[in-house]
Amino acid sequence: MVLPTATPEKTAELTWEIAQLFPAQGHWSEEEYLSLDTNNLIEFSQGQLEVLPLPTFSHQRLVAFLYRLLLGFVEKCGLGVVMFAPLRIQLGQGKFREPDLVFMAAEHADRLGEQFWKGADLVMEIVSPNDPERDKVTKRREYAQSGIPEYWIVDPTDASITVLTLRGREYALHGAFIAGESASSVLLEGFRVAVSDLFSQASR
C-alpha cells in the first residue's frame, strides 16, 4: 500500500501550526531562550531571537588558529579559561551573544556557568561579510556597555585585526593591525598574533 504524501500546502500549514506554539518575536523570555534545544547559533536581545548563519570553512580556520594561540598562551601562564562558539555570554538582563572566541580570567571563575557565562574578559569576533556592521558597530557598543575589557575585531575582507580596550563605558583603539604587523593585547601582556600568519590560514 502506498501512503499518501502531504501536499506542499499541507506541509506549510503544519509548519505554521508548530511555529504558533512558540512566543512571537519580542516576547521571548530569558528562560524560554535558554531552554531551546538546538544546534543552531541563536543570540537573544530584548525578547527577540537572532538566528545566525552557519560559519564557513575559512571562518572556522581563522577561529581554530586564534583558539590554538590564545589557549596555548593562557594555559602556559595559568591565566584562565578560553572557549569558542557556540557558548552563550550574558551581557546583561535580556541580552545574550555568542562570540567566536572568549576568555575569562581565573579570578572571575565564579562567572562561569554551565548554560552561559556572565560576561567575559576578552572576546574576539570574525567579521561576517554579510553583516559587518553587526560586529563593528552593534557588538562593539554592546560589549563595551557590558564591561568586557578587550574586544578583537578580525576582518577577513581587508586582512586586519582591530584591538579595542575599554575606557569607561566605551572602547578606545589600541591598534589597527595589518599584514606584516603583529596584533597585541592590552589585557594579556605578551600575547601577540602575526596578522599575515593568521590570514594565510584562510587561503590554504
Question: How does this model look, in words?
Answer:
There is one protein chain. A hairpin with a 2-residue loop joins β1 and β2 (48-51). α3 (57-77) packs across α5 (195-202). Helix content is 29%, strand content 30%. The protein has five helices and 13 strands. The model has no long low-confidence stretch (mean pLDDT 85). The protein has two domains: 16-51, no CATH class; 57-201, tt1808, chain A. It has 204 residues and is of the alpha+beta class. A six-stranded mixed β-sheet has the order 3-6-8-9-10-11, with helices on both faces. A five-stranded mixed β-sheet has the order 2-1-5-4-7, covered by helices on one side. A two-stranded antiparallel sheet has the order 12-13.
Write the layout of secondary structure elements.
Elements lengths: L7 H12 L10 H5 L7 E4 L2 E4 L5 H21 L2 E5 L3 E5 L2 E3 L3 E5 L10 E3 L3 E5 L5 H14 L4 E6 L4 E8 L2 E8 L4 E3 L7 E3 H8 L2
Parallel strand pairs: 4-7, 8-9
Antiparallel strand pairs: 1-2, 1-5, 3-6, 4-5, 6-8, 9-10, 10-11, 12-13
Query: Rounded to an integer, what's the Rg over CA atoms?
Result: 20 Å
User: How many individual domains?
Assistant: 2
Here the CATH topology of the largest domain equals: tt1808, chain A
Task: Indicate the percent of residues in helices.
Answer: 25-40%
In DSSP terms (H or I, runs of 4 or more residues), the helix count works out at: 5
CATH class of the largest domain: Alpha Beta
Q: What is the level-2 CATH architecture name of the largest domain?
A: Alpha-Beta Complex
Sheet/helix structural class: alpha+beta
Question: What fraction of the residues are assigned to beta strands by DSSP?
Answer: 25-35%
